[in-house]
Amino acid sequence: MMATTHALAGVVLAVVFATLFPETAAGTIPIPVVAAALGGLFPDFDLYVAHRKTLHFPVYFSVLAVPALAVAAVVPTTLTLSVALFLAAAALHSVMDAFGGGLELKPWLGTSDRAVYSHYHGRWVPPRRWIRYDGAPEDLAAAVVFAAPTLYVFDGHVRTGVLVALGVSAAYVVLRKPMVTIAQRVVDALPAGVLVYVPNRFVEDFR
Predict the structure, then answer these.
(1) What share of the chain is helix, strand, coil (3-state, %, to 5)?
(2) What's the CA angle centered on 113, arms 116 and 88, to 5 degrees?
(3) pTM of the entire structure?
């Protein structure tokens, strides 16, 4: 799924918290909302270093998120809410990846059996492909669904950020396949001396 979809899904967690506890920071200031969005993005920071393995922890993030959310519910400060929402969003991202496509650079072909790595189980979780690949039309639909409650509950900078994320998502959906075609041509044209600096998965999938 798109990074923006994950970020918007994370923000939904902040919406839920703000609805349940409207007097807390989650419902009054944007910092916990930003933390939730960053938590939704964080696992994908491993894009060029063992993607969906290095920073993806579907079990461990979930284990950490549960007590953090409990603490935030009892002591709802800006810090506790931000930490809890960050961890919960990172956990949600890691779990959601199992419902998308595989790791191949052309995931619409459905050739990969690796969706996300579970460090707890010591193995790759296979893709279920409910959302066929990042940037698929249904991925954009999911982003819109996740954005809707946030647009309803929040205004100001949060609302603007969500609308920007939707715009980026729509553009990515349009450009997703053309970008791969261009990237493949670039890789094919690179000399061997340069290819050694390109992550292996980009080279292997194209050659």
Answers:
(1) 70, 5, 30
(2) 15
(3) 0.91
